[in-house]
Amino acid sequence: MALTGLAWSLFVLTHMAGNLLILIDAEAYNKYGHAIVTNPLIYLAEAGLVAMILVHIVNGIKLTLENRAARPEKYAMSTNGKKAARFQSKFMIFHGSLLAVFLVWHLITFKYGPHYSVTYNGVEMRDLHKLVLEVFQSPLYVVGYVVCLIGVGFHLSHGFYSSFATLGLYHPRFSPLLNKFGYLYSVVVAAGFMSQPIYVFLVAGR
Known about the structure:
By secondary structure, this protein is mainly alpha-helical. The protein has a single domain (about 1-75, about 85-205), classed as Fumarate reductase/succinate dehydrogenase, transmembrane subunit (3 helical TM bundles of succinate and fumarate reductases), CATH 1.20.1300.10. Helix content is about 70%, strand content about 5%. It is built from 8 helices and 2 strands. It has helices at about 1-20, 25-35, 40-70, 85-90, 90-110, 130-135, 140-165, 175-205, and strands at about 115-120, 125. A two-stranded antiparallel sheet has the order 1-2. The longest helix has 30 residues, at about 175-205. It is elongated, with a radius of gyration of 19 Å.
């Protein structure tokens, strides 16, 4: 869980940074996408990501079922203070499930969506910029996308923090700093992803 979660955390950070190229211009955004899909290692990378997300999902479901089996009845009183379970941790299986659905939705829309072409310096490539502008003209789609990205933020904020504890890298002295960094990391990633649909809907698409 920890290793696959951290690997995907790194991937979404780089993916988010690449998406920000849409704030520059269409050419930069399309060339970025073209560089990824024409990389000979793309199939190996995609296979690795798929394998890791499947391992993460299966282990997440397994751990949730084991935890429930170990405590079939809820405690009479909830733990308060520092020992209390964080809000995000209580609902990891729910926003994790939301992210699984979101991932499939995202792939269907963009990776396997309509194919437009554009040419730069004699090189023909997919016009992802046009597709993104087209998709994010729908207010319903933008709202749904943002809601899912809030789920991404919740999942990352707890997952990033707990992964270090799972790997034995947790120390009470650095726990508050690690906790704050986890929150900052999740906000940066989620906000970075949200900037794309919001920018397109409010500015670029107009």
